[in-house]
Amino acid sequence: MSQSLPMSAAAASRAETVRAEMDRSLATLKESAQRYARLSVADRLTLLRGCVSGIEAVAREWVVEGCRAKGLDPDSPGAGEEWLVGPVITLRNVRLLIESLEEIRVHGRPRLGQGVRTRPDGRVEVDVFPTNAMEAALFAGFKAHLLLQPGVDARAARERQAEFYQRRDPAGSVSLVLGAGNVSSIPPMDAFYKLFVEGKVCLLKMNPVNEWVGPILERALAPLVSAGYLRFAYGGAETGTYLVNHDAVDDVHITGSDRTHDFIVWGPPGPERERRKRENDPLLKKRITSELGNVSPVAIVPGVYSDSQLWFQARNVATMVGNNGSFNCNAAKILVTSKSWPQRAAFLDRVRKALGETPLRKAYYPGASERYESLLAGHAQVEKFGAPAAGQLAWAFVPGLDAESRTERLYEVEPFCGILSEVPLAAADPVEFLRAATLFMNDRLWGTLNAAIVIAPRDERDATIAVALDRAIVDLRYGSVAVNHWPALAYALVTPAWGGHPSGTLADPKSGLGWVHNSFMVDGIEKSVVRGPITVFPKPAWFVDNRQTHRLGERLLAFEASPSWLKIPALALTSLRG
Predict the structure, then answer these.
(1) Strand 251-255 vs strand 287-291: parallel, antiparallel, or unpaired?
(2) What is the pTM of this model?
């Protein structure tokens, strides 16, 4: 490949790794790959336990530097985001991997208990959350399961689980992880999947946007680095191009844009790329896995909601939009409503109120202003909330889009910035709406990563509507579907699998290929499903208007490092103050 990878954002690295150093890192990884592949489970556990103390030691610095990069006060509630999506989730991933490896050491595979069941249609569901009574207490009413692909029965699910650990003499290999630039837990957690689920040593290339966290991660994960199983690299597109094509790299994982994926796999745009696609002749012959973004929908099933339920869900939507300045691949981007829903106007007014109360954020991700202006151009109805200071963007809301439009860019382009839109469908009753919304989300919106459905409790209990809801969950071509809550929970809980729906292909990856997280190491997955109550009390830690998120973040870090019933009262008390 003679040209550099396209950058999804014009970010320049301040710490470019010289090629000689990258060569040395890859030589070390190549040399250690076979040793690591055949490392005992006990030795892997030792490495992971060392990472627990390493993450704890750097957690506050990690948060402070994240706040500096994103324009947040590290002592404010807004800093709680950096706790939750940085060290807390990363440490949770490590803890859950430890639990799974302990199960593998004793039983050969992580135990799934009684949470494997066959549905009436023959499909298999595997419960993955809560994993114990403490989690059930902390997340009362929340559940998550994996829906397996057709043809994978309960026996096959167990036999295919933790496949790497069933091999007698596994071969070693080197994986290149091209880390995301937006959320600081993504790069290490992607690397954990390669290291501890797939059994590969890893070179983690930091994105220039968040390369600030690289040196912190090098210290946090020192046991893996010092043993020669993990290395880091820094740089922009030229560095990525060099590493992707390096002879020592056996496979590649990217969290980024579909444009970068296609450049890696098929080469630069033009006739040669089209020829390669036609002839199924990829430029990159190595295996590639990916997570590539989404126009994330939230479908509001028409029904009768109380005022408190409408307000909770409006703040839920504002949280999905406002978290991390909306620079998330799972940020809510489009509300799907019913045109004839009597409470539609009342709900949208509450969404406007919630957005108006959401603090504006630094638009830290390169290219945000250009995307913002481009995607809003040509829309007659654009509502903006907040008074932006320098470097900020107002939250934008575009209501009343035409569901029949074949030229609406907000359906086709992920707004990686603070834009929320709304499209009303003609379907009136809940059953009809669920069917129509499923078709719209599958066929008109770009991406297959995650979708949400909000439904009134009375309708969820109705036998006929419940069947329609279940059908929608099964039929939606998304890797994660959440009921009543932000699908980001499928990312944060770690036991679910995170990734695009497996309908993606190398030529048309949509939101990506393959899975990460999936700490139970289940194979044959079609999607993760998260369900929770229509409202939650106390206020969820991740809500944008929680006044105690920063304190909850610190307490949750301590809990994940060493779960204990004794720590739950302090968590509950802090939550009540939120």
Answers:
(1) parallel
(2) 0.96
- Residues linked to residue 146 through DSSP beta bridges, in sequence order: 126, 528
Tell me which residues of the chain have a pLDDT lower than 50.
Answer: 1-5, 7-9
Residue 291 gets the label, from left (phi > 0), alpha (psi -120 to 50) or beta, of beta
Collapsing DSSP to helix, strand or coil, 147 comes out as strand
pLDDT tens readout for residues 209-224 = 999 999 999 999 999 9
Q: Please give the Cα distance from 92 to 100 (Å, whole number).
A: 12
Q: Which two tokens stand for residue 213?
A: 């966290």
Nearest Cα to 515, choosing from 502, 497, 539, 527? 497
> Which H helix or E strand runs over 334?
strand 332-338
Domains of the chain and any CATH numbers? 1-38+169-291 (3.40.605.10), 39-110+161-168+548-578 (no CATH), 296-487 (3.40.309.10)
Nearest to 148 by CA among 139, 138, 158: 158
Q: Where are the alpha helices (DSSP H) in 494-567?
A: 549-561
Sign of the dihedral defined by the CA atoms of residues 56, 57, 60, 66, in that order: negative
| CB contact at 8 A, 292 and 510 | yes
Q: Where are the alpha helices (DSSP H) in 385-429?
A: 409-412
> Is-contact 28 385, C-beta < 8 A?
no
Nearest 5°: phi and psi at 172? -80, 150
Distance from C-alpha of 269 to C-alpha of 233, rounded to nearest angstrom: 27
